[in-house]
Amino acid sequence: MAAYKISVEKGHLDFAAGHFITYSGRAETLHGHNYRVRVEVEGELDENAHVWDFGSLRRMTRRLLDELDRRTLLPKENPALRVTEVGDGVEVHYMEGRYVFPRQDVVLLPVPNTSAEMLARYLAGQLKLDLLAAGAAHLSALVVEVEESSGQSASYRELLGG
User: Fold this and answer.
1) How many other CB atoms are found less than 10 A from the CB of residue 59?
2) Domain limits at 145?
C-alpha cells in the first residue's frame, strides 16, 4: 500500500524548557534545552490532493509547544520522585534532595521521565487527539521528533488507523 507523507519543522517549532532525568539510583542536575520539534504525518491524499495542510499542522504543534515553553517539565509517573502541589508551588523530592518550583513555571507531564523520547511520545499523543478531532481519519501514522541539542534527537511513531 502506498502512502504520502508531509513534515513540518520550521516556523518556530521550538521551545525552551528545564528538566532533569532520573536513572537507576541517581538524578541529573536541573538543566535546560532549546528543543526543536519535527512532525510528520502519513496517509492517503484527501479530496484536495493533500495529506494534510502544512499550516494547520504547524499551528497545532505550536499551540502544544507554547504550553511547554519556558517551563520546568516534571514527570508525574516517575516512581523515584514524589511530586506534590503545595499552595502556589510544586515540591519534588528525590532521595534526600528537594526542589521547590512556582506552580506557574511547571508543567506536570503524564510520563515516567522527561527524556526526549518521552517528550516525543507525549507530543504525538496530544497531536493525535487534535488531528482526529480535526477530521484526520485518512491519516495512517504520525511521527514526532524532539531534538534536545544539535545532532541529538529522539522520535516516536504512532499508528493512527487511517
Assistant:
1) 13
2) 4-78+109-159
C-alpha cell, 15: 521551545
* Separation between Cα atoms, residue 74 and residue 30, nearest integer Å: 11
What is the value of pTM for the model shown? 0.94
Q: Evaluate whether 158 touches 50 at the Cβ level (below 8 Å).
A: no
pLDDT in tens, the chain (162 residues): 568 999 999 878 999 999 999 988 899 999 999 999 999 999 999 888 999 999 999 999 999 999 999 999 999 999 999 999 999 999 999 998 899 999 999 999 999 999 999 999 999 999 999 999 998 888 999 999 999 999 999 999 999 875
Q: Is residue 71 part of a domain?
A: yes
Q: The cell 526526549 sits on which residue?
A: 116
DSSP lists the bridge partners of residue 33 as 17
Within a domain: 101? no
Rounded CA-CA distance 162/159 in Å is 8
Residue type at 111 in one-letter notation: V
Return the amino acid letter for 113: N
Report yes or no: 142 and 158 within 8 Å, Cβ to Cβ: yes
